[in-house]
């Protein structure tokens, strides 16, 4: 099986605080991996590194055959295939849930507005939040957001 995510001797420091100390990892397609550790142990730093939201100090990260550690790699192209849900994220408070959901796919030209609305309805139904499509984020609980 070929790994779709590989980390080879990844190091990352914030000043004198080294949070990633030679991390090695291989994740195969369809495999589920859980990262567990105390606060400050580097979990979020590593996940942010997978999208190059955080630059590593040394080592290599390879996503689907693309070495994102190489400055010549088109990270925007790689990001089209990598998703990330942030621990703390903010929905646009002036937009409804539906408007927040369709904004990115429509703006990026990935879907028409109609296609994005149809998909958003399916996703809201899947998580039991169909009735929240037309409300503003400030009326939602943390879990609903």
From TrEMBL:
InterPro entries, per the entry: ABC_transporter-like_ATP-bd, MetN_ABC_transporter-like, P-loop_NTPase
SUPFAM superfamilies: P-loop containing nucleoside triphosphate hydrolases
The keyword Transport is assigned to this record: yes
Alphabetical keyword list: Transport
One protein family per Pfam: ABC_tran
Domain annotation ABC transporter: ranges: 20-145
Protein name: ABC transporter
Biological source species: Weissella hellenica
